[in-house]
Amino acid sequence: MLDGRVVVISGVGPGLGRGLALRCAKAGADVVLAARTEERLEEVAKEVRALGRRATAVPTDIRDRASCERLVRAALDAHGRVDGLVNNAFAIPPLQDLLDVDLAAVRKGFETNVLAALDLTRLFVPALVEARGSVVMVNSAVLRHSRPTFGAYKMAKAALLALARGLSTELGPRGVRVNTIAPGWIWADNLKWYFDHLAKERGVPSRQIYEETAATIDLRKLPEPDEIADAAVFLLSSYARAITGQCLDVNGGEFHH
Hints:
Helix content is 48%, strand content 14%.
């Protein structure tokens, strides 16, 4: 689906970021990996190379313009082109009620989750226009619910969705598509740790926490990183060539939209 293409992925960690890199590589893409932790980047890069694809690891702080400019130069120097950009970098906003939350902390969350994604995308626009490429924003199922303490989180992700749609309108005439995926639960290390924590607090097996959560989902299972990453691969590929400005929920049926 991505044979011969080059995809840049920000926020490469052990969960979804790794899944995005490996699924893009299995679909035929070479990948450029960006995150602050160089050791983690190199681990994922080795896995990509083991699949027979090229991987370029570039330590990057997406909140820093100079760092992002280095990422763009490194991607083009190594591969000569960029066909896809996945904005996956994320910082959890403060999980407090909006009536109590510190506004400085909310602003900091916007810097990483929204403004940094805009800045990075703008830097890659010339390359994406040349390749008639595609951008995927990684959002969240927080778009689909309104719960106490999630207000600042939802504000940031709602802004990211608006950003993606605005960019779609602006970049569409130049041949670049911009779409969004909105995962729900992601069954990866962080969530497994959290379920273990809840299980210890309640004195029950962690499997029980999983099953109680899965019972609220149509497919009765929590999506895994590869399953979410495959939705991004689809949107990056020519199979989605007439799709832009859209948000694809990947939550196993927890919410319907």
